[in-house]
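Retro notes (design track)

What went well: tokenization of the new backbones is finally stable.
What didn't: we kept losing track of which sequence belonged to which structure.
Fix going forward: every design gets posted as structure first, then sequence, in one message. First example under the new rule, 285 residues:
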């Protein structure tokens, strides 16, 4: 997570431009693949293809030596998580800038996690799919020794189920659009798709950027409007759980300014605006 110094924020804005270009490219993949889609399976495959396009883009960007966290390599961006990863929520009180937005955000999420744990040392997030099935998501843990909160990603098979569920919900929204249009009330389904994706990260690094960029393209496709996503939706989803994530998205998810006020970076596809990706909480997780 970046610090709040001016140079870092300039860096974040620069990466937002790069992400916006890829969101437009992924939108082009969706437009092309969905134009001839005649079945639910083909629509699911179209959204997965767009996701794969974004994942490959994130790897290629990392190969250029930009937008990666210190100590991370490009190969980390395409390396599977395997059995999972641990993410620290508690910020470093010694090394971190305690006045930075990043530090304050983590302290807020740490407080949420401790309230949910309610004195216990572990909490399993259970994810309810649209089918009614419940799948184990990530766990939230309190480690007494260093007195810190951590999150641990779900098991590999569960993460795969959750990613697939995300693409399936987006395919359902695409079908609704084809049948006569989507409406704002159906954005709850999009929130579910976003949560499923957050619970199913695939790679050691870069997952936040991949998910944000893909979700901007997907929302723009099914609603014909580019969204502005809340900051750090990956950590929000892992720490707050499904209901807490829904609340954050309800309060903070909004529609980006139209292209006339905020031009898209790709003249060939003017729907995924730069502002959609200007509020990313972590540029290289």
């Amino acid at each position: 997570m970046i610090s709040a110094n001016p140079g870092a924020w300039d860096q974040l804005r620069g990466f937002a431009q790069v992400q916006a270009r890829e969101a437009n490219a992924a939108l082009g993949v969706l437009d092309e693949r969905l134009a001839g889609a005649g079945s639910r399976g083909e629509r699911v495959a179209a959204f997965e293809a767009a996701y794969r396009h974004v994942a490959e883009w994130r790897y290629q960007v990392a190969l250029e030596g930009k937008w990666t966290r210190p100590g991370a390599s490009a190969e980390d961006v395409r390396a599977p998580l395997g059995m999972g990863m641990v993410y620290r929520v508690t910020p470093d009180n010694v090394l971190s800038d305690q006045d930075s937005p990043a530090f304050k955000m983590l302290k807020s999420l740490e407080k949420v996690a401790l309230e949910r744990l309610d004195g216990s040392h572990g909490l399993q997030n259970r994810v309810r799919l649209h089918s009614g099935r419940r799948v184990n998501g990530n766990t939230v843990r309190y480690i007494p020794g260093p007195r810190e909160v951590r999150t641990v990603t779900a098991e590999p098979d569960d993460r795969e189920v959750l990613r697939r569920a995300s693409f399936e919900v987006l395919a359902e929204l695409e079908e609704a659009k084809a049948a006569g249009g989507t409406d704002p009330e159906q954005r709850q389904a999009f929130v579910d798709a976003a949560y499923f994706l957050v619970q199913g990260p695939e790679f050691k690094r870069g997952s936040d950027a991949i998910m944000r960029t893909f979700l901007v393209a997907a929302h723009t496709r099914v609603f014909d409007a580019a969204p502005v996503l809340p900051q750090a939706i990956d950590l929000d989803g892992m720490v707050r759980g499904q209901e807490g994530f829904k609340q954050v998205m309800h309060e903070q998810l909004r529609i980006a300014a139209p292209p006339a006020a905020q031009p898209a970076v790709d003249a060939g596809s003017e729907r995924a605006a730069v502002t959609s990706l200007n509020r990313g909480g972590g540029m290289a997780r």
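Added context from the reviewer: The two ends are 7 Å apart (CA to CA).
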